[in-house]
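Chapter review: from sequence to fold.
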Amino acid sequence: MEYRGPRRVRAVQKPMPEIKHPQDAIVRVLRTCICGSDLHLYNGNVPDTRVGSTFGHEFVGEIVEVGKEVTKVKVGDRVIVPFNIACGECHFCRQGMFGNCHESNTEATAVGAIFGYSHTAGGFDGGQAEYARVPYANVGPTIIPPDMDLDDAVLLTDVTPTGYQAAEMAGIQTGDTVVVFGAGPIGIMAARCAWLFGAGRVIIIDKEDYRLEFARGYSYCEAYNYREMDDPVVFIKKITDWMGADVCIDAVGAEAQGNALQTITGRKLLLQAGSATALHWAINSVKKGGVVSIVGVYGPTDNLVPIGNVLNKGLTVRANQASVKRLLPRLIDHVQNGILNPKGLITHRIPLEEVADGYRMFSAKLDECIKTVLIPPTANR
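The token string follows.
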């Protein structure tokens, strides 16, 4: 696929990717996804998203070529490709913070590089393609177990690790009440994973009834539509004995709706790095001394955030891009043991050639779309 400007993508023929460094690999893509984070790019809300870019940070595939220094994978291996591009050697990678690699992204000092996610995240082409170049192939690509479904595998590149890390960062204690803002794939997975850490009650908030119904079935949680509330913060306090939730998770990020001022300044005028409505609700809904976990994507500039409430309530705020490589061994075990069912999130499978229709459907929330997998034409070779 190729980005042609806000809300315009198309399928085109592009040159075959090449080995540029001896630690590169070329992957024939077998499955790739459209992520909610891709919609921030699609809608023109991420700085330095350049015309001609190929999106896609969720993909799995088969190694078809390797650089001369690649020793951990070989031609023919089927691999999960984490969305983080990480060197494996820097100070942060050695701490397992693969989303904060200090070497892979020359454009920033905060986030590491991400496949297909603008030049602020390194400018690498992504995996919504037939073939993709994968740097640091001794670090990221992880061999798919022979008995694992490719649909499960592709959701281990981002959705499952991000949802899991959202719950992990929240420091959930046995019996805690956890509120997740956003019933997209990440929020639904975060709600599902909250139970793994001992939550006693899990609540999800969104505005789309079909997503809320899906979340009830997949995540075994309570689900409420904020459009039916006068004030989501008051609602959450009311159903938690006026104390607030123990944990709130922001799984929405830059395109949150529900507050006119945030929408105008963050989504329309781009005066801040996205609408921080969900983050406001999370900060104001959590109890004193509680934890706010943020995995929703915001831009690299400022946001209007009630930091005074964070201070005065004594909150802990934890946030990061998921460190996929660190989490993969545990999550592969969870999938193989039937504890997690990533592919259960998939509602639509679309040929890569129809990527424009896929983006339109996902963006407009048509046909009760939760998660879309794109199938390249070469995937069945």
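Two observations follow directly from the output. Residues 324-336 form the longest helix (13 residues). The longest strand covers residues 25-34.
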